[in-house]
Amino acid sequence: MSQTPKGQRLQVGLFGRVNTGKSSLLNLITGQDAALASPQPGTTTDVVEQAMELLPLGPVLFLDTAGFEDSSGLGPAREARSLLALRRCDVAVLVIEAGAWGQAEERLAQAARECKAALLLVVNKADQQAPSPEFLQRLRAISPHVLSASALDIAGRDAFLTRFKASLAAAAPQALEPPLLGDLLPAGGLAVMVVPIDLQAPKGRLILPQVQAIRDCLDNDASVMVVKERELSAALASLKRPPDLVVCDSQVVLKAAADTPPGVKLTTFSILFSRFKGDLVSMARGAAAIHRLKAGDRVLVAEACTHHALEDDIGRVKIPRWLRRFTGLDLRVETCSHHDYPADLAQFKLVIHCGACMLNRREMLNRLRLAEEAGVAITNYGIAISVLQGVAERSLEPFPAALQAYQKGALQAKG
Ligand code: SF4
Question: Which of 4, 149, 168, 244 could be stapled to 59 by a disulfide with Cβ–Cβ 3.0 to 4.6 Å?
Fold first, then answer.
């Protein structure tokens, strides 16, 4: 974990018609031949990622996407891939040529607005044809962030980079991420983290949510004690004063809740991430849908990355089993992973999403938006597991608005 994780980087996608010079532009920005650039239209066939430190902006992940209006048979599929990439972009750089604003550009600009990505318009190949003042004025009515470029002008790279970084900084949303857990701890406070070391734990390291939670404690001048679930009771008994917060893996929440004295706040890593990456209140409200499920309902368990499923896999085995046991219903539970999040969510009654530690906040918010537009309840692993284990009130207690949203929804469902 020597690099900033992908989910923590500003994600900037380059979009446009084929052969507008997106890949050349990315190569000019990064100073590398990361993206295959050629005068042949349609050279980029899938999303190419390139991470870099773009000072003073910080860690950025660039996404070079396949161009629109690709006349090959694969054109529509490639366009769909490019639009999928838009969901995770904080900034969409739309690369165009002077005077060329048509349906493709209109579609991309509209999709960027729907995904709430800021729009930066770059008129490329300005050395071949400079944009007219009228064209620039038309673009500024679409987005205030407009720039001219000559991607093949290597000698002009420094001057272009200065202008590009200034435009990107102006377009990029200010960091609005909620805190991970720092706000739950007073300065000098103590968090106890409960980390099972079982078959699912990766060899020799902690997983990303655990590492990030520990780092956030340190950033907030708090201390951290890390224990396995069997050691929690003894660890709490050894402390001179109770900790300010206990954070556990969702799979041991029942035991952690039993071993943590009432009055000590307790939550799970996954619940912390549902706030950090998404919207905890709406996901707590979504969890109440568990109480409304009926026999035959379809439930989607969505994981944001791929891994080899183990014997007692959390998403594929445990959650479906707990869900059926809790509701006593014959439910149709399906799973999806990585980018296979279905476009048609309306067929499901409930989506249970993983902690999304590998996604950036923009993509998770777009997944929430798609569920809301389809009228489908959405929650996450941590909240759902707490409901299924009968400790939802306990693990949501540190978040009063979320607790209230869940209790209200559950009451309506039961009544
Ligand atoms: S499945 Fe979700 S929570 Fe688990 S590692 Fe992947 S992104 Fe993170």
Answer: 4
**CATH code, domain carrying 254:** 3.40.50.11420
Q: Which one is predicted more confidently, 4 or 222?
A: 222
Cβ-based neighbours of 135, under 8 Å, separated by 6 or more: 98, 99, 101, 123
The residues near 150 (Cβ < 8 Å, ≥ 6 apart) are 124, 125, 126, 127, 128, 156, 160
Distance 302 CA to ligand 1 centre (A): 10
Strands (E), 228-295: 245-248, 266-268
Residues 102 and 76 in one domain: yes
pLDDT digits over 120-147, tens only?
Answer: 999 999 989 999 999 999 999 999 999 9
Identify the CATH number of the domain in which residue 408 sits. 3.40.50.11410
Within 13 Å and on the Cβ side, how many CA atoms surround 260? 27
Query: Residue 38 has what pLDDT?
Result: 55
Q: Do 257 and 190 sit in the same domain of this protein?
A: yes
319 CB near ligand 1 (under 6 Å): no
On whether both 60 and 150 belong to a single domain, the answer is yes
Atom number of ligand 1 nearest to Cα 358: 7
Q: Which atom of ligand 1 is nearest to the CA of 381?
A: 3
291 and 335 share one domain: yes
CA of 364 to the centre of ligand 1 (A): 12
Q: Provide the phi-psi class of 31: left if phi over 0, else alpha when psi is between -120 and 50, else beta.
A: left
Asked, for residue 1, whether it belongs to a domain, the answer is no
Q: Domain check: are 119 and 163 in the same one? A: yes
Q: How many domains does the chain contain in total? A: 3
Confidence of residue 1 (pLDDT cuts 50, 70, 90): very low
Say whether both 193 and 73 belong to one domain: no
- Over residues 36-92, the pLDDT tens digits come to 555 555 566 678 899 999 888 889 999 999 888 877 767 778 888 889 999 999 999
> What is this structure's pTM?
0.88
User: Which residue range is the domain that position 215 belongs to?
Assistant: 182-270
Name the residue with the closest Cα to ligand 1, atom 3. Answer: 355
- CB of 213 shorter than 6 A to ligand 1: no
